[in-house]
Amino acid sequence: MTTNHLLEIKNYGQSIWMDNLTRDIIKSGELKDLVENKGICGITSNPTIFEKAIANNAIYDQDIEAGIKAGLPTYKIYESLVFQDIRDACDILRPVYEASNGLDGYVSIEVPPTIAHDTEATIAEACRYFQEIGRENVMIKIPGTESGLPAVEQVISEGINVNITLLFSVESYINTAWAYIRGLEKRAAEGKDISKIASVASFFLSRIDSNIDSKIDAKLAKGVDDLNVEAKLKAIKGKVAIANAKIAYQEYKKIVQSDRWQALATKGAKVQRLLWASTSTKDPQYSDVMYVDELIGPDTVNTLPPATIEACADHCHVANRVETDVEEAYNLIENLKDPDVNIDINAVMDELLTEGIDKFVKPFQSLMNSLENKVKQLSPV
Q: What phi and psi, each to the nearest 5 degrees, are found at residue 277?
């Protein structure tokens, strides 16, 4: 039998979650097999994933027809489909949740991306989702926007598990970590149990390299006279996302060593783990598992799409690397300021966050449109 390297990763304190959810994999038993035999111990979903799952898939037709008969609007039909998939996935992962004492076994669902900049609407929807889905091991995804973080703090204080998504900059991660801590502090001050709340901070990777690599390629395409400058530019390609993540991990270590965190830990609080997201390699010149291999380490999660799960099971080179080459990581980020390179990483991160919300809004709206069409097709004349 060949070795499944995903199972080895667990020995280094990292959990592997899958970035995919469809009714097909629930009904066929594939998800159960991935959980019981392949080392998958959590699920993340997003509007893009649900658009692919629901659009043009007859498996949902019976439930859509039931929604039509019940007189539900399209949005409520969408929720009925998605909430059921989330519940079923939570039930499959429940044994993992119990065996890990609530560390793993979560299924993430995102609040509508159209409310990413509305704090109050985000709080209301997060609470409603949590209540209506009715599973302890559901995790509500909230974007780490300026408006999202006060929502994170409030929702955590109400005892709801939260996955803070679309984090690109180290600063955004730090802000997210403190929002989690403030939420726990508020709950603890009310005398409520904080030991059963879990959170992850979803730090995106490949999109950073895609953005910066395209900027470097544009500079190289214009022509560079100096070979030294050309070497500087090429040395940065495909390296920024991992360097950025390693720096974020150093900040994580500082936060969990702080007095404020230690005070919560004594009350049973769980650390908010960094979750590596956007981990499929976009450039075929790079290793298809580089965003896994380079960031294995304790108290982390890596969420992988199915193709990366297969690739990693086959040929990941497993070792604890999240704290290797840390000094080089800081130097690499500093080198972006070099006049010969001149890439403003803060501007890149802002651009990626705006794009990231858009990349969730568009498929969400597209899904609503295709569902509306399906409702018309299935409605009795």
A: -120, 170
> Which structure tokens are listed for 341?
């390179």
pLDDT digits (tens, 9 = 90+) for 241-290: 999 999 999 999 999 999 999 999 999 999 999 999 999 999 999 999 99
Structure confidence at residue 381 as a pLDDT band (50, 70, 90): low
Structure tokens, 50: 């649900």
Strand partners, 143: 165
CATH number for the domain harbouring residue 13: 3.20.20.70
Structural domain of 260: 5-206+238-322+353-378
Q: What angle do CA 143, 277, 325 make, to 5 degrees?
A: 120
Statement: residue 337 has pLDDT above 70: yes
Measured CA distances, 133 to 31, 107, 119, 282 (Å): 19, 11, 21, 34
What is the DSSP secondary-structure string of 131-168?
HHH--TTEEEEEE-STTHHHHHHHHHHTT--EEEEEE-
Closest CA to 289 of 273, 264, 270, 309: 309
d(CA 50, CA 61): 15
Write out the H or E segment, with its range, that includes residue 217: helix 206-222
- Asked whether residue 65 is assigned to any structural domain, the reply reads yes
User: Of residues 27, 52, 141, 234, which has the active-site annotation?
Assistant: 141
Q: Catalytic residue at 141?
A: yes
The answer to whether the pTM exceeds 0.90 is: yes
Domain-embedded: residue 332: no
d(CA 35, CA 106): 12
